[in-house]
Structures are given as structure tokens and as C-alpha cells.
Amino acid sequence: MADVTVGDREHRILEIIETTRAKRPRFKDSQVTMAHGAGGKSTQTLIEGLFAPAFDSAALAELGDAGAVEVDGTRIAMTTDSFVVRPIRFPGGSIGELAVNGTVNDLAVSGARPVALSLSLILEEGLGAAELEAEVEAIAAAARTAEVEIVAGDTKVVERGHADRMYVCTTGIGIVDGRAATAPTAIRPGDRILVSGEVGAHGTAIMLARGEFELDADIESDTRSLWPVCEALLAAAGHGLRCMRDATRGGVATVLNELARASQVTMVIRESEVPVAPAVAGAAEMLGIDPMYVANEGQLVAFVAPDHAEAALEAMRGVDGCSRAAEIGEVKTEPPGMVLVDTAFGGRRVMDLLAGDPLPRIC
Amino acid sequence: MSSAAGLKFVDEFRDAELGHVLSGEIAATVDPDRHYKLMEVCGGHTHSIYRYGIDDLLPENVELVHGPGCPVCVIPMGRVDDGIAIARREGVIFTCFGDMMRVPGSEQSLLEAKAEGADVRMVYSPLDALRLAKANPDREVVFFAIGFETTAPSTALTLIRARVEGVNNFSCMCNHVTIVPPLRALLDSPDLRLDGFIGPGHVSTVVGARPFEFIPADYGKPVVISGFEPLDVLQTVLMVLRQLRDGRCEVENQYTRVVPYEGNLRALEVMSQVFELRPHFEWRGLGFISQSALRLSDAFAEFDAERRHEVPGVRVADPKACQCGEVLKGVIKPWECKVFGTACTPEHAIGTCMVSPEGACAAYYNYGRFASEKVVA
Lengths: 363, 377
Description:
The complex is a heterodimer. By secondary structure, chain A is α+β, with helices and mostly antiparallel strands. Helix content of chain A is 34%, strand content 24%. Chain A is globular and about 65 Å long. The mean pLDDT of chain A is 90. In chain B, 36% of the residues lie in helices and 16% in strands. In chain B, the strands form 4 sheets. Chain B has a 5-stranded parallel β-sheet with strand order 2-1-7-8-9. Chain B has a 4-stranded parallel β-sheet with strand order 4-3-5-6, sandwiched between helices. The longest helix of chain B has 17 residues, at 230-246. Chains A and B meet through helix 1, helix 2, helix 9 and strand 14 of A and helix 2, helix 5 and helix 15 of B.
């Protein structure tokens, strides 16, 4: 360590690794495993190595939460999402509510005001009528709150054992808001990194709801529409708002990594500034997981030009459920594509994409 | 993380200011002309060191090397193959800890066997596996037990409970290992140069401090048993360095809030009821080590998955490119391995050290890279 050549050698090897990492991943696995659905590196391989090249769409290639098309001078954002969460009801929400908010949020963080949804249900033979009715009501209520209309739908029933109670697919369209042109490529060195509130609640709530840990804590899913906070950001920061992402599967850490790669910048996060509810931090500590990798269903990460950061933060804190919004870090230039963390303890480390599958079927 | 009341006791051990005080004391203790090489035996320490960036708080001439104390990392390929053979049997529900599922066998991992139809499930404790057996009386539930003396007592208690409750569709494939034999093997290996040990805290809660006395007595190296929070590790480094400065050489206990000198007698007693020593056991990268692992005693033979199900039991050589053995012995740094980070990554691991979050390679790959890099504004 002390001698210089060893340090140089280590550095050279690290550079080779970064070159390997920066290459477009190729899908070489012999079969699909649960890891391909976990939102980490395997999912990235599937999307960038198989889907994106096959469909060859410029809008898709941006790998945003929603794609945009222009129809007669109006920019329309479109997105789709499937929900397979188990159990279907959990503290703070249920699969139906998630299916509305998840799709609404993909539109909202793309800077589009959500307008309409389609709803597709895959039901398992034997599903109780009361359960179905409860979910339909949850869907209706969430759509009312988010001010979107459900304008189309489809139903399929499969034999018992061929689905787990119910799966919900929603597709949404929204009108792109003209106040900012948000995109991963708009992120600039010096931008501030903001989160809309406490992270890690949804994934932790699901984990505990499964009852596999014999651990009790008062933790509820944070599922809700993000359009109010997106609109507040658009109003407060305008073109100073560079990019937004909802931190769902894979949590804030995954979002930061995806964007660092897409925009070839470095993100430096101050661990001590990341808001985490005490109950979530406690549960995560016991389970040995990092809340930064845990899914949220009602939190976003926003990148804002430095001179707009204060106003943006102020605006976010004024929105219901975002009182603990915080600035957690800053965008830098070197080494590109990396997320680094200044630990609360005064050290520094890398925060990479997760390779494994911490918890399947959370959304 | 900003957190409050619930984590009070944890946060106290992560206080950055105290960390800098300790860091200063360490700097004042070392002889600037000497290079110090300390081994942290336990994977939990490796994880902590990278997770909190503890390396950054140490002087350049204090080097931490990673030892063999990661339970997943030491599992040889043949044992994974045996597990998969059982998992593929009709009617079997095969259970293991999460990170074990991604460990490569000679052909595939348990995760891949699951995708091909084997019923492999992740559990968080052996009791979860027993519960699964009770809920599925028409299935055979097998628990793939791994770990040092830290986890062996919970496996033992689960087996005792299975017998008391008469759960006869439950069995255990035992891969429990013991901490002292690999340390002795390591100390006997000629290519090793170490100045002292950061002793394994979790294992010591069970075995106590006494079993490590042979290290200062026979090999003349200090040992300090350590907790896992960043301040624990820093204080331990300071205690080892002070022993070296003062010319002392003994077993000290930094982790007194958890580790009693005599260990946990009740846990040791339970283990001796259920387990007996295997004559020898293969360790990944370290080869066969005598009396280094546990199997179920004859009294618990009916719960022994290896006696209930036929397994190939074939020894599979480690892949040629893989240098996990040298990494586990602390002979090379993770990045010095020929395949590190290119052919061997956490998503496509060749070696076990790249799989478990406690593995030296995975910890370095996930957290350590560019740790000392200057960020350009």
C-alpha cells in the first residue's frame, strides 16, 4: 500500500473495471431468474441488452420513466407498469392504490401532468369477491385523488396457481409541462441533489407485512401521487429543474446510479443528510439492509441548478408529506458514472447498483 | 443516516468526532518507519471497514487484510453441488440464507436451479425453515446450514425443537465450521506476514476469548476481539498497535459489552448435544483442514440431510482463474486477483468472496473502489 507502484497498479485495474462497467451490458443468461426483476444490475442488462436494442426507439433509448411523443404540437408522455406485490394489502396501501400511483408517478417525474389511465387485471381463479371489490374501490379512490380518469380496461382470469391472487397493469398518458425540459442528460456538475422526504418506508413496510421476520414496527407504505410535489418543483425552479426520478424498486441508490451513468457525472451523497424515519432505520439496521436501496412509492429524487436549490427545497417542504425533504448531495464531474458517499463516520465509499435480489415482488 | 431515539445506542458507536479522536491517537501510536499488517478475521469487520470507509481514518502504514471469517466464502463448490442435488429431488423444499443462493457450484447456483424448477426458498433463520416444514407436512424441508460458532447454536436449538415436536419432514445439511482450525492453518502458512489480529466479535460471543490464546502463546501475535461498529474497529486497531508499541502480546477484549471471556456456556452445551467434529472438511481456497467443521451427531442422525438423501459428495476443484484462497488468507488484495471486477463481478461471480456482502471482494467491489479518489468539482 505504501509503495507507489502498488497504488498505480490498483488504479490501473480500477480503470479497466470502469471500462468494463461502462460497456453496454449484453444479455447472456441462459434463463430468467428473480434477479432480472429486482431492479439492479440484472434488470439493467435485460433492458439495455435485450429490449432497447430490439425496439430501436429514440424515446425508449432515453430509458426515462415515461416516453414522449408529439401529437399535433402537444407533447404527450406515456408509460406503463405492472404490479405483482405480495401481500396485496399492506400497511399504508394495497396493490390497487399502488397501480394507480406508480403509473401516475412515472408520468409526474417525467414532468407531465397525468391525465388518463388504462387498467388491466389478471385475476387468479378463486380470488374472493370482497378482495376484488376492495381493490376496485382502492383504484377508484386513488384515481380521484390523483385526478386521473380510467378510460380503458381489460380482464383475464387464469387457473388457480397460475397467478398469485391478482396482478394489475396500468398504462398512463400525461401532458408534458412546458416549464422545464427535464432529462437525465440535462444534469450538470454543481447541481444539487434533493429528496422529497424520508426514504425506505414502502419496501420496509412490505417486508414486515410478510411476517417473515417476527419483527413489529409501525411502518406504513408511502404510496401517493407525486404530481403535487413535481408541480411545486416546476413552479419553484422552472428551467433550473434538470431531472426528477421516483425512487421505486432499488431505492434512491439505484436511481442515483442510473442517472450518474446516463449523464456521465459523479454524484456525491452526504449520508448524514439523508432523511430516514427512526422506525425504518431501526428495522433496516436489524435486517442488515441499507434504506438507500429500499423501495419507495411516494418519494422522488430531484436535480436542481444550484441557484434554484433553496427555492425548490422550500417549495417541496410545503407539499403534504414532504416536510422532511432535504438536500443530500451534489453533482460533480470525476470519476464519471459513479455514486460516492461521504459516510456519517467521516470516510468515503462507493454506492453501486445492487447485484442481488434483496426482496422480490415489492410492487 | 439521520435517525433518532430508536437507534441511539447504535449511533453512539458511529460518532464521527470520536472517530477522529481515535484516528489521531492511532497516528500518534504508530512508528512511522514500520509497516503494520493487521488481519480482521471476520467478514462482518470487512463489511464494516468498507461500509464506513474506516481505511480512510488510518495512517498509510497501517494495512488491514481480510481473513477467512466469511461463512459463505469458505463453502467449496462440491458442497453447493450436493445442496443442488438435494434441492432437485421430488418433494423437497430446500431452504438457505439469501446470499448462499448466488454462490456458484460447478454447473450452476441454487438461484439458477430454482429458475429451472427446484423449490429453493430463502429463509432468515433455521426456525423459519422448521416452520415451513410444519406448514408443509407432505414435503421434505431441508435447511442448508452455514456459519461459524456464531450461527451453529441456533441450528442446534432448531434441531432440538424439531425432535421435541416430532417434525420428521425436516432435516439439515450441515456446513457449520469452527474458527480456530483455519486460523491455525493460516498462521502455519509460510507466505503469511501479519502483525496482529482484529479478533472475531460474533464468534467470540459463543466461544469466548480463551480459544484465541494460542495465537499470542504459540505464534507471538496480539489479538484484540472487536465489535462491529466503526468506533469498535478503530479502538481495536489502536489496542493492537499499543500492544505492538509496548512489546506486549496477549488476547484483549474490546467487545466487553457483548463478549464474556468464557463465552456462552449454554450455547456451547447445546452445540455439543447436537454436533460432533468432522474428521476433516474442505474449505474453499484453503483445502482440507482437520477437525474444522461440524456434522450432526449420531443422536440426531435422522435429521441429517446427508444421511437422508444421497448426495454426489464429489470434490470439485476451484476454477483455475479464481484466487479466493489467496484472498481468504490475506496474501493478495481483492483487486490483485486476475479476474477481479472483469470476469468476476457480484452479478456473475466466479469466486465466493465476490458473492457475500461480507466477502472481501464484494465489499471492495461494492464500497471500496475509488474510496480514496479525489472528487473533481
